[in-house]
Design brief:
2 domains; single chain; 3-stranded antiparallel β-sheet; elongated; 19% helix; GCC-box Binding Domain; 4 helices; alpha+beta
Length: 171
């Protein structure tokens, strides 16, 4: 394992056998996430050099340990774009507005007439699964985690849920 210097004082981790080839290029840090180099007017990700055409239409490279600067081949896996999209973190702002829940796949219901105020949903391969209505944000997040594990297996994004103890007021 060797390190290749990037901009902003960061380093990418690569396999020993890839180091001589990759180290010939000047590497930059893209969006504080991935290593890329410029050839002419084209920016090329470091993972593209390493996978070299194995990822194609609707296929993308993902980092198993979620560290996008760890470009060792044992850390790279080719997945379809549905799995890749699922593994993105929850958006904090959507269409210029703050989202209602701190958990991915959970939102506050606009229809207050339903039994639960919190709704859960998840998408895989352009099919949306409604997980139901829940009384608490926590319950909806747990339902999301369970369905994500069912649909995506070891690639499932899991919300970090902590059960809060309910405070009961006694009169």
């Amino acid at each position: 394992m060797k390190k290749i210097k990037l901009t902003q004082g960061k380093y990418a981790i690569v396999d020993d056998e890839d180091y001589p080839y990759l180290n010939r290029f000047n590497w930059c840090l893209c969006n504080k996430r991935e290593a890329y180099t410029s050839i002419g007017e084209t920016n090329i990700l470091m993972t593209s050099f390493l996978i070299s055409g194995k990822a194609g239409h609707k296929r993308v490279v993902m980092h198993k340990n979620k560290n996008s600067l760890d470009c060792r081949k044992c850390n790279l896996i080719i997945v379809n774009d549905s799995v890749s999209a699922h593994n993105k973190k929850k958006m904090k702002i959507k269409n210029g507005r703050k989202v209602s829940s701190k958990y991915k796949g959970v939102h506050l219901s606009k229809d207050r007439s339903v039994k639960g105020n919190w709704r859960g949903r998840i998408t895989k391969d352009n099919k949306r699964y409604s997980l139901g209505a829940f009384k608490t944000e926590y319950e909806a997040a747990k339902a999301y985690n369970d369905k994500a594990a069912e649909l995506y297996g070891k690639f499932a994004y899991q919300n970090k849920v902590e059960q809060r103890s309910e405070i009961i007021k006694v009169k």
